[in-house]
Specification:
Layout: E1 6-14, E2 20-28, E3 31-37, E4 40-47, H1 52-62, H2 68-71, E5 75-80, E6 85-90, H3 102-107, E7 118-119, H4 120-124, H5 133-138, E8 142-147, E9 153-159, H6 162-176, E10 184-187, H7 193-201, E11 206-209, H8 215-224, E12 227-230, E13 238-241, E14 246-247
Parallel strand pairs: 3-6, 7-14, 10-11, 11-12
Antiparallel strand pairs: 1-2, 3-4, 5-6, 8-9, 8-10, 12-13
Helix pairs in contact: 1-6, 7-8
Length: 248
C-alpha cells in the first residue's frame, strides 16, 4: 500500500479507568490540488495526495463544467505547488466552460439514456471490493469503483473524500476508455443529490453503496433515470430508485 495515503502520528489513549498509554497511529493524508483553466485559477480541491490528473478530469465532468467530448481534446499539465499539486488545463478556442450556479446545476435537465441492466449477483460481488488497505489502516478514507455486468471491478479510487473518490474513478475511466454507460458505480459513502448528479453527468446508470442514501439522492436518481441501491451487504441490499436496472 502506498505510504502517501497515510502518515504515522503519536497519540495518547486514555481508558475509562484512567490508564494512559502511548500509541503511534496511521492517519489519512490530505493535500491540495489547484486547478487552472486557460491560465485562470478555477478551484482548489482537498484530497488524498494521489491520482491528481484523474481527479481533475473527473471533477470537470461530474460537476458539469466540461463534456466528455471536450475533455478528450484538452491539454493537461501537472506541476508541483508550494503546498500540493497544480494542474493547468488548456481548452481549444471553440470550447466553452459551463458557468452555472449550484442551483442551476441542480435544475439543469440530465437524463441517463443507458438501458443497461445488472443481475443482482453482480451487485453482491461489489461487497468484495469495498475495503482497502488505507481504510483498514486509518479508518479515514472512502472508496469508489466501477464494476461491469459480470461483477468484475474495472477501476477503483481511494480518497479522504467520497466525492473525490468518485471523481477520480470516473477520471481514470475516461483515461482508460471505459464505457461508463455499461458499468455501475460502487461507493462507500452516503448518496445525497449532488453525489447522484455526479454519476448522472457521467452517464453511469446505477449507483450501489454500502451506506444509506439521502432523500435528495433518491429524488435526483428518479429524475435522472439512475438506479440507486443502498445498504449493500453480503446478505441483502435496498433498492430506492429505478430498480428495473437490477435483474432479480
Amino acid at each position: 500500500m502506498p505510504a502517501k495515503y497515510t502518515k504515522i502520528y503519536p497519540a495518547k489513549k486514555i481508558d475509562f479507568n484512567g490508564k494512559l498509554s502511548k500509541l503511534n497511529l496511521p492517519l489519512a493524508c490530505e493535500s491540495t490540488l489547484e486547478l487552472y483553466l486557460n491560465g485562470k485559477r478555477f478551484t482548489t480541491l482537498f484530497a488524498s495526495p494521489t491520482e491528481f490528473q484523474a481527479l481533475a478530469i473527473g471533477h470537470l465532468l461530474t460537476e458539469g463544467i466540461l463534456t466528455p467530448e471536450a475533455i478528450s481534446e484538452i491539454k493537461l499539465t501537472e506541476k508541483k505547488g508550494e503546498k500540493g499539486k497544480i494542474i493547468e488545463i488548456e481548452l481549444k478556442a471553440e470550447q466553452k466552460l459551463e458557468s452555472l450556479s449550484e442551483t442551476e446545476k441542480l435544475e439543469k435537465e440530465i437524463y441517463v439514456e443507458s438501458d443497461t441492466i445488472f443481475e443482482a449477483k453482480s451487485l453482491f460481488a461489489g461487497i468484495n471490493y469495498l475495503e482497502s488497505g488505507p481504510y483498514l489502516r486509518s479508518r479515514g478514507t472512502h472508496l469508489a469503483a466501477l464494476v461491469d455486468r459480470k461483477g468484475k471491478m474495472l477501476a477503483r479510487a481511494i480518497d479522504v473524500g467520497r466525492h473525490n473518490a468518485v471523481d477520480k474513478v470516473i477520471g481514470k475511466a475516461l483515461f482508460e476508455g471505459l464505457s461508463l454507460s455499461e458499468l455501475y458505480l460502487l461507493s462507500t459513502g452516503r448518496q445525497p443529490g449532488y453525489m447522484v448528479l455526479k454519476a448522472a453527468r457521467a452517464g453511469i446508470p446505477l449507483i450501489v453503496t454500502k451506506a444509506m442514501p439521502l432523500d435528495s439522492g433518491v429524488e435526483i436518481a428518479k429524475k435522472t433515470n439512475v438506479g440507486l441501491v443502498g445498504k449493500l451487504s453480503k446478505d441483502s441490499l435496498l433498492g430506492f430508485a429505478n430498480l428495473w436496472r437490477v435483474k432479480v
